[in-house]
Amino acid sequence: MGVTVSDSGLMEVDTSLCMHCGACVGTCPRNSIFLNEVIITFDDSCNQCGLCVRVCPIGAIDKPEGAE
Amino acid sequence: MTLEYDVVIVGAGPAGSITAKFAAENGASVLMIEKRQEIGSPVRCGEGIARYWIESVGIPLDKKWIAYEVEGAKIVSPNGTEFCIDERHAGEEVGTVIERDLFDKALARHAAKAGAEIMLKSTVVGLLKDNGKVTGVRVDQMGKRFDVKAGCVVGADGFESQVGRWGGIDTTLKAKDITTCFQYRMTDINPDPNYCEFILGTEAPGGYVWVFPKGKDTANVGLGMQLSKVREKGDPKKYLDMYIESDERFKNGKILDMVCGAVSISAPLDQTVTDGLILVGDAARMIDAITGGGIANACRAGKVAGEVLAKCVKEKDFSAERLQEYEKGWRAQIEERLYRDWMAKEKLVTLSNETFDKIIATLAEVGVEKLNVYNILKVIEAKHPELVEEFADLL
User: Fold this and answer.
1) Which of B292, B296, B297, B295 is nearest to B224 (CA)?
2) N or C: which end of chain B has fewer CB within 10 A?
């Protein structure tokens, strides 16, 4: 298997799980997440609050290893 | 390349298409922009809607997008007590189970027939502004980037809405006001073919499990839970898998489709218009906080939006002041119920399984003429006044 985790540096999205539903986009308190049909990106305004990790119905998002 | 329209709508779901239809029908030039390559797909919906409100937003019922029809709603308490109610009295989500992808395409066709233009696989990446007024959108379309000027931009971009926030309208939600959902369309199962089923209790913390039949042996089986009750990542799918495991009817089930997403279960926004911009549907947080249903309200608000925008075009005035007619119009139709159901939701999510058992048993015994918060509380008050003490402000 190839790499399935795309690392934005701020948050990690497991692209083998992500169903591009936009739950994280609407939940993000800082409007830091952008979903271009099937590509999720986090911009620098993300403060790693972790709400997107919890709202994702399938568990595709996580903080990078080592992040608090 | 710079295009120009009276009205540019971001999102081709029900809110966008109904707004487009009524604006175009009344003389506005309209462009509807959708980021997906196909309208209505992939589906993100439980697909239950009532029959009675559809024609009031100018859309004839059409067998093409109706998958199945049910007699009513069945509400199941944690100990298995059932309360059934006829579809005519069961609220806005019960009566038909639709093919949502075909439904969305049908609405878009109505918009197109009225004269609206549609652009697919086109992502709005930002708003154009002039002196604080929204004047259009910036679009990415298959490798091209261009601007579209608009008298008014309509944010109909759903739960994930960014248009409102880009335009300075605060649509941020608290965790307690978000439900996160997972659903399978399952076949080779035994749903009750007569009812859309709502199953309450701690299997779906702060939410419910739904079983909406799409045929005798096929149903949408989904679960929504309050975000503030999520403990570990991926909980919605885990809780749904556990529920399905526990219910004999799904023993041989095979999965035809997986759906995920989130909905707001919040109070209505204080503001849905600003200079050159309005929000409609889920983007404006118009979802009912108890059922999580949003299509009826999106369509009602879309009709008001389209009609008001067509007037604004004639007067060449898209100021926040002029757009108050939309703000007041949608609130007159749905705000009171949205607010009351949100207040009731705030209490419902705190109830124990035992309390749900008592409430459902009372409803099953006494019955209720029409399913709404007020009627339910009245019935319970007569029998178990202690159960509704906390809801006194809603009575």
Assistant:
1) B292
2) N
Whether residue A1 is predicted with pLDDT greater than 60 in this model: the reply is no
Distance from CA of A1 to the nearest CA of B (A): 22
The predicted pLDDT at position B382 comes to: 85
Cβ of residue A49 closer than 8 Å to a chain B Cβ: no
pLDDT of amino acid A5? 67
pLDDT in tens, B159-176: 999 999 999 999 999 999
Pairing of strands A33-36, A39-42: antiparallel
Q: Are residues B293 and B161 in the same domain?
A: yes
Alpha helices in B63-187 (DSSP H): 100-113, 163-166
Q: Is residue B346 part of a domain?
A: no
| Span A5-62 CATH architecture | 2-Layer Sandwich (3.30)
- Within-domain flag for B56: no
Q: Are residues B192 and B256 in the same domain?
A: yes
Evaluate whether residue B58 is within a structural domain.
Answer: no
Strand blocks (E) in B70-174: 72-76, 82-86, 96-98, 117-119, 122-130, 133-141, 144-155
CB contact under 8 Å between A22 and B160, yes or no, is: yes
Rounded to two decimals, the ipTM of the complex is 0.93
Residue B23 domain boundaries: 2-46+101-172+268-339
Instruction: Judge whether A13 is closer than 8 Å to chain B, CB to CB.
Output: no
Which residues between 225 and 284 in chain B have a beta carbon less than 8 angstroms from any beta carbon of chain A? 227, 230, 232-237, 258-262, 264
pLDDT band at A2 (very low <50, low <70, confident <90, very high): very low
